[in-house]
Amino acid sequence: IARREPFSSDENEDEEKLPGEKYFAVLALDGDEIGKWISGEKTPRFKHQFSDYFDGSGVQRQGALRYFEGNGGADLLETSRALSPSYHLQFSQALSNFALRCARQVVEAHFGRLIYAGGDDVLAMLPADTALECAQALRNAFQGRTVENTNLASPATGYLSIDKDQSGQPIAFVVPGPAAEVSVGIAIAHFKSPLQDVVREAQKAEKRAKNQLSRAAVAVSLLKRSGEITEWGAKWDSGGLALYEAIAKALNDGRISGKFPHRVCELLEPYITIRTGVSKQADAIADQKTATELIQKEFSHAAERQGSESAAEALRGPLSGYLKSLAENYQEAEAADNEGDRPPLKASLTQTLLASVIGLCTTVAFAHRTNHDKETRPPKGS
């Protein structure tokens, strides 16, 4: 699996002579607040359920939504769908379709092997450098979005299709849809690490994504051979994954050297006070603005030295977006603390910004030690 040959048998090969790094990942996915969907607390409103479309001319609007909008049905449209056996049947079917029709194809498109898929739960083994991409693809499938490098296409919101009928129209099947979310935990380890331990770490990371990152997130644990475990995580729409992908692409394209993420960590580590309790630089990062400027300058300096000005410029936008999103999420969490809805935050905002960027750079450096960008992907549907 580490070398992107998930279905080969290497029982007779000398493991010590295998080329490349030997790291793999275990991915654990779980749906968010599924109990609330089943209990009816999150059932959708009728305005999101009624048909709404245009006729063949593309001019005349049709469907039940238009009818109720124009005939005094505003109250009905704002009413949540009733909890009924038919609702439970459809929701169960949506979860089954994701597990049985989507999960395996997505995992295998990322050179992995599916261990288990049932309802909103997925467990899989993947190469270290494709695990995060696979996590995003599984989320897209869960929400009914087209998944690249597979046969899964989205003919309508909340639906996917694999096949077409005789007239060439897609045969759609329902999945949970864009209102449903998932959280994912990933553990990356050396191939000689006990598999049970790596699975447990992936499941712990998944719980960390739900509890510490407030769901709709991915959390990564790096299990180094020294015994050290490095953790990082991000919400799906936080900008963290965009920055991760930008750095990974720059590394793959050779626009920055492999030393870049390590250099960023070296420059920012001295400002972390949470680990040592004391730092000479502590007074210099007393506020968010100073911390943000410091991170941006050190990050750009490392990119220019390990690449070029153009490479640094390409990374500045994703970095700024990530830092802004981190600050917004922190402030939301802080407000929840004040209302007593969550336990107190363990670190200040400035320390959170520093630790998050260091964790991201460590993760991308570690995962892409096993990069195989010259490999071709498996055929669609394989």
Explain the overall architecture.
Helix content is 42%, strand content 16%. The protein is built from eleven helices and ten strands. The strands form three sheets. It has a six-stranded mixed beta sheet with strand order 4-5-1-8-9-10. A two-stranded antiparallel sheet has the order 2-3. It has a two-stranded antiparallel sheet with strand order 6-7. A hairpin with a 5-residue loop joins β9 and β10. It is globular, with a radius of gyration of 23 Å. The two termini are 16 Å apart.
Quick summary of this structure?
The chain has 382 residues and is of the alpha+beta class. The protein is built from 11 helices and 10 strands.
Which consecutive residue ranges, at least 5 long each, have pLDDT under 50? 276-280
Our count of helices gives 11
Order of strands across the biggest sheet? 4-5-1-8-9-10
Q: What is the oligomeric state here?
A: single chain
Average pLDDT reading: 88
| Main sheet: strands, sense, barrel | 6 strands, mixed
Report how far the terminal alpha carbons are from each other.
16 Å
Rounded to the nearest angstrom, the radius of gyration is 23 Å
Structural class: alpha+beta
Total beta strand runs: 10
Question: Which key features would you list for this structure?
Answer:
single chain, two-stranded antiparallel ribbon, 10 strands, 382 residues, six-stranded mixed beta sheet
